[in-house]
Design goal:
Blueprint: E1 12-17, H1 25-38, E2 42-46, E3 59-61, H2 94-103, E4 108-113, H3 115-128, E5 132-136, E6 147-151, E7 154-158, H4 164-185, E8 188-193, H5 200-207, E9 212-214, H6 222-239, E10 242-247, E11 252-254, E12 259-261, E13 264-269, E14 275-277, H7 280-292, E15 296-300, H8 312-331, E16 336-340, E17 354-358, E18 372-373, E19 378-379, H9 381-391
Parallel strand pairs: 1-2, 1-4, 4-5, 8-10, 8-15, 9-10
Antiparallel strand pairs: 2-3, 6-7, 11-12, 13-14, 16-17, 18-19
Helix pairs in contact: 1-8, 4-5
This protein binds 6-O-phosphono-beta-D-fructofuranose.
6-O-phosphono-beta-D-fructofuranose binds next to strand 14.
């Protein structure tokens, strides 16, 4: 057989990752890289997301070096560079990106990202016709994937993005660990969890034993706050210690300004217009102490769920999605993103269970109402069932023993 008949020989596929990192990006890169090499592609990596296609370009060759997909973060580095003009950066960078795709002879681009990075990829596909395949990623789990979860005969539209399973594992473990210190002081612990617009990750604290959770989808208005303090008192009376998980992006009524607002760590915005969150747990803890008289502490989980190794579930998820990405490549179907069709346990994360979504319909997907109990400020059994697919059975130990009081004798 002549060389020219070999599939994709002489063609180049480039991979980039943008936005907040997750423990599953290197695994996604490894899985896409390995499959593309088998198809005959030369594989490049673009440094720092879209930034690596600006100016002279910052591109590395991944073809002949081993790639460690178990290690978290992204070895291709990341940034929140927006190719399109924004308030923060009015320059139109699209011509530079198009020029560099030509200069580096990049035939196909795989963009690993959330709403921002893949939203930009979609616009470049629609406007400039770049051959792009999106690849989902976010620990917030808020990028629409149309993954269906069947619970007691009900079909629920869930979301399953690589990175979330590893992040959820971290948060459930952290919550479980916090229990011993919390029990020792009979405190209320308010645990802040990443999640700008959606409470998926915060729900994993419930899986680790948290009793109460506040999410961005349910605004904490003045009336709701009153009810919340009542629920806190009731639950504390039952258990003598409580863990309350709070999404960083929760909308919390400010008694002084009489406005609903979010708590930011800085007023600076990134190129997609997002401010950096941080500190709502402190506000909630101090108001709880004031209103209930119970000692409360705040703990920000911060970058912990984004750190560390890729979980076993994420390894299989990225592998199944990479299979589907290659399917798209072989068919020449660009402007699409592979997704899981159905919520399944790890052993069923296989290509036959995947589907694709048109990058045109990329967007945020908040928690479905069925997953959150607004009255009790907690997640429902339906959500626990959703997470059981990813994390197995919940395990929430407590000290357990009840000692007999001794009277002076
Ligand atoms: O990418 C989403 C996210 O993880 C959010 O939950 C969080 O608000 C944000 O990233 C923080 O990102 P960084 O501080 O790295 O810009």
């Amino acid at each position: 057989m002549e060389q020219k008949d070999k599939l994709f020989r002489g063609k180049t596929l480039a991979i980039l990752s943008g936005g907040g990192d997750t423990p599953a990006i290197n695994s996604s890169i490894e899985n896409v890289r390995r499959r593309a090499l088998l198809l005959g592609f030369k594989v490049y990596g673009i440094h720092r997301g879209w930034k690596g296609l600006l100016g002279e370009g910052d591109v590395v060759d991944l073809t002949n070096v081993p790639y460690n997909g178990c290690y978290g973060g992204t070895a291709l580095l990341s940034s929140r560079t927006n190719p399109f003009p924004t308030k923060k950066n009015p320059e139109d960078r699209v011509p530079q990106i198009m020029e560099n795709l030509k200069r580096y002879h990049i035939d196909t681009l795989v963009t690993i990202g959330g709403d921002d990075t893949n939203g930009a990829a979609k616009r470049l596909y629609e406007q400039e016709g770049i051959p792009v395949i999106g690849f989902p990623k976010t620990i917030d789990n808020d990028l629409r994937t149309h993954t269906m979860h069947t619970y007691k005969g009900q079909e629920i539209e869930a979301v399953l993005c690589p990175g979330f399973p590893s992040g959820a594992l971290c948060i459930s473990e952290l919550t479980r660990h916090l229990r011993s210190t919390n029990e020792s002081h009979q405190r209320i612990m308010v645990l802040e969890v990443m999640g700008r617009d959606a409470g998926w990750l915060t729900g994993s604290a419930i899986f680790g034993g948290a009793e109460i959770a506040l999410v961005p989808e349910v605004e904490m208005t003045a009336e709701r706050k009153e009810r919340f303090f009542e629920v806190v008192k009731k639950r504390y009376a039952e258990k003598k210690n409580l863990i309350i998980a709070v999404s960083e992006g929760v909308r919390w009524w400010n008694d002084e300004t009489k406005e609903l607002g979010m708590v930011y760590a800085s007023s600076e915005t990134d190129e997609y217009g997002h401010k950096r969150f941080g500190g709502v747990s402190g506000v909630v803890a101090s108001e709880i102490s004031k209103r209930t008289g119970i000692e409360a502490r705040a703990q920000i989980s911060g970058y912990y769920p984004r750190s560390g190794a890729c979980s076993a579930y994420d390894r299989r998820l990225t592998s199944a999605l990479a299979d589907k990405a290659m399917d798209l490549l072989l068919r020449g179907e660009y402007g699409k993103m592979p997704v899981m069709r159905q919520m399944v346990d790890a052993e069923y994360l296989e290509e036959y269970n995947t589907s694709t979504i048109d990058m045109g319909s990329i967007g945020n997907h908040p928690l479905e109402a069925v997953y959150y109990d607004e009255k009790e400020f907690t997640f429902t059994d339906a959500y626990v069932d959703f997470l059981c697919h990813v994390l197995g059975e919940p395990y929430c130990p407590s000290f357990g023993s009840v000692f007999t009081p001794v009277k002076p004798w």
